Amino acid sequence: MLTWHVQLYVGEKAKKQVRKTMGRINKRKPTPGVYLLTLPHNQKNVMEIVSTSVLLQETAHMRCPQVIGIARGKEEAYALMQRILKDTYANTGSFQVERYLNLRKA
To answer: Could you list the residue range(s) of the whole structural domain that residue 27 is in?
Structure first.
């Protein structure tokens, strides 16, 4: 099962059915056009955008880092990434997303 951040960022188009979509993703059911923003696998990236179609594979689903955002469509995913980065920089003066998210849930 995926790990979802407590205060998940949600795109405008994804808001309508976010709980239902999250349930489908957790059950590894197809959710076309939905993208997840996750913490990175490595230290070189700030975050990653993952298509939910990739998560239909069991190994990808099990290895997916913590989900910090959900969007419907690539364009919305990029806009959501931009929003997260702006919030992070405004609150910490850096682009350390994981550190900012830990402060945010406290």
So the answer is: 4-105
